[in-house]
Amino acid sequence: MRKKTKNGNALQESPKHNKQLPANGRGGNGSKPFHECFSSVAAMTQDKKLRSVLRRHAKAVRAHPDEAAHWFDYGKLLLDIGQNKPAEAALQEAFRRAPDSANYRYYLGIALENNDKFPEAATHFKHLADIGPELEDPMSTIGLSALMDLGYCLEKMGHCVDAFATLQPAVGTAVIILCNLARFLSGAGEHDRSCFLYSVALMLSPEDADHSMAPAILT
Questions:
Q1: What angle is formed at CA 209 by the lines to CA 208 and CA 210, rounded to 5 degrees?
Q2: 145-199 pLDDT, tens per residue?
Q3: Residues 6+ apart with CB under 8 A from 99
């Protein structure tokens, strides 16, 4: 498991980003609008194109502060460039406005995870893992991703046994994926790599492996 990719020359984070943004749309002192705190991120980057994009998002949040989608888009961008603290705050705002969105909940969990807030992140990931089978395409993969992130958070919290138990149900899915990859490689003439992946699938869960593939791959 991993934290999400961070830009090698990430922006310097301002102490302002540590403040929880209240629901009334004002800053912690009750006077500064919270979008100004996010705007300061744009001012600190040297990349002109990125600075323009960040300011455009800040402008959208300022113009439509009740639109969850604007907060999500802003938070996702901040997450992508490694600005995890302001990303968390923006994604909190998005999730507060649309708490039924699996997508918003998942990325908020990622931001919390990246900020080492593992118990809070685990709560969101567990919710998504529990309802994973109910999610329709293209959201169906979120349940599996949340399961893996939940395992990571439990491990970081020192609950390794629970982490193992959490991820164990996903082994069957992983084996199916490995078998499919092995079949694709076999069809492409990549015999050695195909055999390797299929052998890993057999080792992980013989009962879940596609045994019809064995003669074609292992001969």
A1: 120
A2: 888 899 999 999 999 999 988 888 778 878 888 888 888 888 888 888 888 888 8
A3: 105
The answer to whether 76 and 88 are in contact (CB under 8 A) is: no
Most confident range, picked from 48-62, 74-88, 180-194: 74-88
Tokens of residue 46, six digits:
């040297």
Q: What is the CA radius of gyration of the chain?
A: 21
Give the whole-angstrom CA distance, residue 25 versus residue 43: 21
Q: Is the peptide bond before 215 cis (omega within 30 degrees of 0)?
A: no
Copy the structure tokens of residue 73.
């888009």
Looking at the predicted structure, is the pLDDT value of residue 31 above 60? no
Token pair in block for residue 2 = 């991993």
Count Cβ atoms below 10 Å from residue 70 Cβ, excluding itself. Answer: 23
User: Which of 44, 23, 45 is CA-nearest to residue 34?
Assistant: 23
